[in-house]
Amino acid sequence: MWFKGFYNCLLFLLFLCFLPRALYLYFFKKKYKQSLAAKLGIKNPSIVNGSRPLVWIHAVSVGETKAIVNLAKKIKEELPDISLLISSGTETGHREAKKSIPFADHFIFLPFDFSWTMKKMVKLARPKWVIISETDLWLNFLSEAKAAGAQVAVVNAKISERTQKRFKRFSDYSKRLLCCIDYWLVQSSDYYQRFKELGIQENKMTIVGNLKLDFPIVKMTLIEKNNLQKRLGIREENFVITLGSTHAGEEEALIEKIWTLKAKYHQIKILVVPRHPERFDTVFQNLKRHFIDVDLFSTLTLQNPSQHALIVIDAMGVLKKCYEISSLAIVCGSYVKHIGGHNLLEPCYFAIPVIFGPYLHAQPELARLAIASQAGKIVPMEELTAVIKGLIERPLTRKKIGERGLQLIESNKGATERCWKNLQSAFGKPK
Question: CA dihedral in degrees (153, 156, 162, 164; nearest 10)?
Fold first, then answer.
């Protein structure tokens, strides 16, 4: 009991430290407008569930949400009488959930992990099963779910060396947290070993592969593709480079390296897709100061297409479309130390080469797969210009790399089925 009180006090102190910045972003940057009241427990969602058993799936942000789309669909197909609730930790994740999992019955923001907010939310939802996508584990959430009689599973489970060290350092906390989980469906043998070293019983863990490789990619129709290319001013001769999911400190540095090639390779076109929507305008203004001739996607139309080589994509849900019309993808979040990369294999669905930076601690398994199959490559900032130059001059090499990426995706599918097979006993269905 004392530990929970200590945990709540520590969480409250951290919350007080976070609050001034949150309020600044709320009032001046329009961030957290949808989520702040819900996260504070002030605005309770309307969950009318009746007698139907409820499955609660939590996916903190966009990547984790995409990972569980097929699994959520499978659960709904196999258990049509259940009620499905999807919780998110970010507003982008919340939007992605509504777009990708429209068949869910409820969409909520996960409140801050105070015992009183979680107790109220769990009592409201009355989940029979709780499924966490990847790593967003919260002590009060999980302990309240267990106290309410729910079965708890972590799917697409992974843990970095850094997080494992933290868990070992704060063993009192980690033991209380990890013992709440009944099933661990793990991405790879490396993660399996790390969880095992934290004391998780082997009979609770199964390696099923990476759910992100099962994410359904819907390609554009020929008309949609032609219209997007026309709007962006892309012609057949263009070499299109998409900088996907960029963060502060990446856009200008990467573009400067690519820009040195423009004098010789006039056909280069760069699409910049910032990771967070609140940075759209900041990125545009910064690039305009440095490169002058920059277009903003939202201002372009078929009648008024882009006339410039650099375009900032200020819209959600367009990244995959940019990859689809690109010659090369640079997956960002990998050129700044504090992020650790994003989904490195997403461009592989469209048979294009993918390169990324050296900071990959958030995506080591995807990086290993991409490098081992020669579908992707770590390219330090200082080597970027030479590598891109080589890819521009060798179209057959580009094609072979893209084909290897597509083969990689196809050969690693099936994690959803393996995941469902292992969850069936939790749902009371025979395997």
Answer: 40
* Residue 86 to residue 65: CA distance in whole angstroms: 9
Q: 398: helix, coil or strand?
A: helix
CA-only gyration radius of the chain, Å: 23
CB atoms within 10 A of CB 369: 23
Choose among 148, 152, 204, 150: nearest CA to 177: 152
Tens-digit pLDDT profile for residues 55-95: 999 999 998 999 999 999 999 999 999 999 999 999 999 99
Distance CA(206)–CA(400), nearest Å, equals: 34
Taking the model in full, what pTM does it have?
Answer: 0.84
The DSSP code for 299 is G
C-alpha span between 112 and 43 (Å, rounded): 12
151 membership: H or E segment, kind and range: strand 151-157
Q: Tens digits of per-residue pLDDT, 230-268?
A: 999 999 999 999 999 999 999 999 999 999 999 999 999
Contacts of 350 (CB under 8 A, 6+ apart): 217, 219, 320, 323, 324, 326, 402
205-207 sheet: strands from edge to edge: 106-109, 83-88, 54-58, 127-133, 151-157, 183-186, 205-207
> Which active-site residues does the annotation give?
64
What are the C-alpha distances in Å from 168 to residues 124, 176, 178, 182, 290? 34, 12, 12, 20, 46
The tokens for 2 are 């004392």
